[in-house]
């Protein structure tokens, strides 16, 4: 997840990466109490790139212009995201703009240092001159100097830019980040450096061991409504078949099969693999039951395909959860198509048959049945 | 690779609920589970498996250990693996899901320096059907035979194994290399291992549209692998999800959430070019394997 610029800059300030004096603006009227002298830059705080081109960054010379600009920016969505906060920052006179980043390369399985002597909003230009240094072993300063040299820096800039890269790397390691990026790093006519924009991507898997980042992350989540559901991309699609599955691979395979057979998925709930069986802390049946509730309260779902391959719970136990759900729920639930394999299959079949649900063992068959029931001419659920 | 029933196996985090269940299952399957580790619970036992506080204590008590299977919580996985390496264990399987990527970077550096094989994290482990179970596979879907399975997925591996079993094609070795974004042993390493394994006649590759490793894998298979390889790749038709574009995205490979139709096409095309048959659905894998092995249907 990406932090907002002002959050990234607060982290930069802590580790002495130079940033400009700035102020957070929650409402256009706060512009009047601005403590930074004009001219000022107002920046939309949305967790996405491309703000400058979208009009989310404005330069203002006085209060009247600033209020108007702030109102405009608050009303401007960038990639579907509205800002909750603006950042007002002093202007900075630069002679040169650099691009710097520390990122985790998932293919190389190593951190990499990235740098371009042409920083700024023209990403094509950044890319054209982008240099990379792979941090093969334990980090040491020479990796940073190696990048500075590759970027073609000379004189004092070699050491001063390397020092910034080192600090970025320290932050990257200490906070378990996926990315620390400064674009641009401004170089003043006197050779001073200033981080003019910052981007930090936190790693979701490591977030829980960084309480300070958790606090920041909560703010981002509150801010961006557009982010809702992003973590579960397989939900709210345009189809009418819901899927409950265990395992992400099986979920993808099931969705593929539905598409191939001419069906249209609404979405998929993944119960996960390597999980605990019955009567343990996070019980499978509770999770399954909750998933059934979620799926059945979606208006768009006409057919619910339950596809569970499990070695720990018997099919009968899974069938029992489904049966008791259909008995307790006041009706109006979608067609159920259940595909189970594993132990106690016959008992599971009987139990489901008693409430009018057919259990299928073959995945292809279950998919075909779900698709045919989801077609417009498919039967409505019967009264039982 | 040491994958015989005699090889000694350790379970780290044996007090974890998932480990407790699977340690017993592994033992029942014939795996030589010699010890468990759970700090603070040394001296106890689980189903006759002695528990120790430290890995080195287990080693001094039961002798050199061939494989350790790690079930500890994600933030303790790096430490558990380093403890195993310090005790000269050269095969590590991490079942735990959600190990922080930078922990994996540190671990893999150490593993490379010590010639240690790391499987996972977020893996079902390894199964040699009807011989050895090193992980959490539902064993009823696996039978002994000559098809090796390499999978980046968990349950999907079982789906493919079940289809193979129905077609009377058993498996030689199945490995789930892990579904986390940074994993230890790669597709390539396992292709090489199965290519050299005498009991394996064909290889089934089970993957999900992921981070582009499939593309390079196709080339590798074409050049280096003599045995027939059949692939099934899930997620080909899933919804495309938008990604934010940032400069670093263009050069650094970050995990891609969702599918990008263009890259999906590319992956399929590279497999076709490398003449690797791709199954449209899991149930088509046996047919393609039989064709590749020239077994009449």
Q: How would you sum up this structure in a few lines?
A:
The complex is a heterodimer of chains A (384) and B (297). Chain A is of the alpha/beta class and 384 residues long.
Structural overview:
The complex is a heterodimer of chains A (384) and B (297). In chain A, 35% of the residues lie in helices and 22% in strands. Chain A contains twelve helices and 15 strands. In chain A, helix 5 crosses helix 6 (156-174) and helix 10 packs parallel to helix 11 (345-354). The relative contact order of chain A is 0.09. Chain B is globular, with a radius of gyration of 19 Å. Chain B is 34% helix and 22% strand. With 297 residues, chain B is an alpha/beta fold. Chains A and B meet through strand 5, strand 6, helix 4, strand 8 and helix 8 of A and helix 1, helix 4 and helix 5 of B.
Order of helical and strand elements of chain B = EHEEEHEHEHEEEEHEHEHEHEH
Main beta sheet of chain B:
7 strands, mixed
User: What structural class should be given to the helix and strand makeup of chain A?
Assistant: alpha/beta
- Cα-based radius of gyration of chain A, to the nearest Å: 27 Å
Distance between the termini of chain B: 33 Å
Q: Total number of helical segments of chain A?
A: 12
Q: Helical amount among residues of chain B, as a percent range?
A: 25-40%
Summary keywords:
heterodimer; A: 384 residues; alpha/beta; 6-stranded antiparallel sheet; 5-stranded parallel sheet; 12 helices; 15 strands; 35% helix; B: 297 residues; 7-stranded mixed sheet; 14 strands; globular
Chain-wise SSE layout:
The complex is a heterodimer of chains A (384) and B (297).
Chain A (H helix, E strand, L loop, with lengths): L4 H10 L7 E4 L14 E5 L6 H4 L2 E4 L2 H12 L11 E5 L5 E10 L4 E7 L6 H6 L2 E4 L6 H10 L5 H19 L2 E11 L5 E3 L2 E5 L8 H13 L17 E5 L2 H13 L4 E6 L13 H13 L6 E7 L5 H14 L6 E7 L3 H10 L4 E2 L2 H12 L10
Parallel strand pairs in A: 11-12, 11-13, 13-14, 14-15
Antiparallel strand pairs in A: 1-4, 2-3, 2-4, 5-6, 5-8, 6-7, 8-9, 8-10
Helix pairs in contact in A: 5-6, 9-10, 10-11
Chain B lengths: L7 E5 L4 H13 L2 E6 L7 E2 L2 E4 L2 H8 L4 E4 L6 H10 L4 E4 L6 H14 L2 E3 L5 E4 L3 E4 L8 E8 L3 H12 L4 E6 L10 H10 L5 E7 L4 H12 L4 E6 L26 H13 L4 E2 L5 H8 L5
Parallel strand pairs in B: 1-2, 1-5, 2-4, 5-6, 6-7, 10-11, 10-12, 12-13, 13-14
Antiparallel strand pairs in B: 3-4, 8-9, 8-11
Helix pairs in contact in B: 3-4, 6-7, 7-8
């Amino acid at each position: 997840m990406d932090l907002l610029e002002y959050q990234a800059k607060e982290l930069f300030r802590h580790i002495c990466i130079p940033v400009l004096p700035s102020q957070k603006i929650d409402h256009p009227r706060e512009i009047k109490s601005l403590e930074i002298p004009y001219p000022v830059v107002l920046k939309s705080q949305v967790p996405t790139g491309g703000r400058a081109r979208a009009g989310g960054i404005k330069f203002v010379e006085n209060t009247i212009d600033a209020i108007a600009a702030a109102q405009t920016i608050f009303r401007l969505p960038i990639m579907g995201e509205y800002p909750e906060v603006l950042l007002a920052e002093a202007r900075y006179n630069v002679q040169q703009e650099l691009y710097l980043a520390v990122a985790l390369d998932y293919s190389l399985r190593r951190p990499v240092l990235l740098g371009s002597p042409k920083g700024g909003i023209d990403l094509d230009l950044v890319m054209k001159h982008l240099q990379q240094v792979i941090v093969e072993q334990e980090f040491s300063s020479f990796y940073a100097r190696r990048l500075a040299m590759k970027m073609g820096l000379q004189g004092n800039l070699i050491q001063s830019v390397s020092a910034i890269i080192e600090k970025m790397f320290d932050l990257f390691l200490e906070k378990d980040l996926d990315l620390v990026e400064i674009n641009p790093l401004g170089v003043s006519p006197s050779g001073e450096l200033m981080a003019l924009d910052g981007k930090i991507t936190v790693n979701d898997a490591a977030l829980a061991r960084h309480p300070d980042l958790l606090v920041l992350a909560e703010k981002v989540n509150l801010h961006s409504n557009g982010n809702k559901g992003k973590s579960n991309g397989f939900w709210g699609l345009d189809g009418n078949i819901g899927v409950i599955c265990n395992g992400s691979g099986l979920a993808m395979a099931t969705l593929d099969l539905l598409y191939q057979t001419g069906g249209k998925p609404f979405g998929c709930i993944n119960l996960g693999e390597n999980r605990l069986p019955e009567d343990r802390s996070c019980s499978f049946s509770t999770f399954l039951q909750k998933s059934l509730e979620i799926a059945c309260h979606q208006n768009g779902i006409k057919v619910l395909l339950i596809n569970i391959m499990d070695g720990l719970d018997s099919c009968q136990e899974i069938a029992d959860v489904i049966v008791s759900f259909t008995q307790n729920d006041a009706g109006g639930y979608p067609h159920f198509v259940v595909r189970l394999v594993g132990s106690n299959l016959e008992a599971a079949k009987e139990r489901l048959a008693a409430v009018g649900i057919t259990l299928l063992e073959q995945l292809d068959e279950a998919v075909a049945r779900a698709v045919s029931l989801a077609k417009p001419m498919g039967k409505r659920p019967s009264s039982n | 690779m040491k994958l015989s029933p005699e090889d000694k196996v350790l379970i780290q985090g044996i007090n974890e609920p998932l480990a407790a269940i699977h340690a017993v299952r592994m033992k029942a399957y014939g795996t030589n589970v010699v010890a468990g580790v759970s700090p603070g619970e040394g001296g106890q036992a689980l189903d006759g498996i002695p528990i120790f506080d430290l890995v080195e204590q287990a080693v001094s008590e039961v002798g050199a250990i061939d494989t350790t299977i790690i079930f500890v919580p994600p933030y303790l996985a790096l430490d558990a693996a380093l403890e195993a390496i310090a005790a000269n264990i050269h095969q590590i399987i991490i079942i735990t899901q959600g190990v922080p990527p930078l922990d994996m970077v540190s671990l893999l550096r150490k593993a490379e320096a010590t010639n240690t094989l790391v499987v996972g994290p977020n893996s079902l482990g390894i199964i040699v059907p009807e011989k050895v179970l090193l992980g959490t596979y539902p064993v009823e879907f696996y039978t002994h035979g000559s098809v090796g399975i390499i999978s980046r997925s968990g349950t999907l591996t079982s789906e493919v194994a079940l289809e193979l079993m129905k077609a009377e094609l058993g498996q030689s070795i199945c490995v789930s290399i892990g579904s986390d974004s940074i994993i230890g042993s790669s597709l390539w390493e396992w292709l090489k291992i199965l290519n050299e394994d005498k009991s394996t006649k064909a290889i089934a590759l089970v993957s999900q549209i992921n981070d582009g490793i499939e593309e390079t894998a196709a080339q590798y298979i074409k050049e280096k692998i003599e045995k027939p390889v059949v692939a099934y790749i899930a997620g080909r038709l899933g919804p495309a999800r938008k990604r934010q574009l940032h400069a670093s995205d263009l050069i650094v490979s970050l995990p891609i959430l969702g599918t990008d139709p263009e890259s999906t096409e590319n992956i399929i095309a590279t497999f076709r070019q490398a003449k690797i048959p791709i199954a449209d659905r899991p149930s088509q894998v046996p047919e393609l394997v039989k064709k590749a092995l020239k077994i009449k249907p």
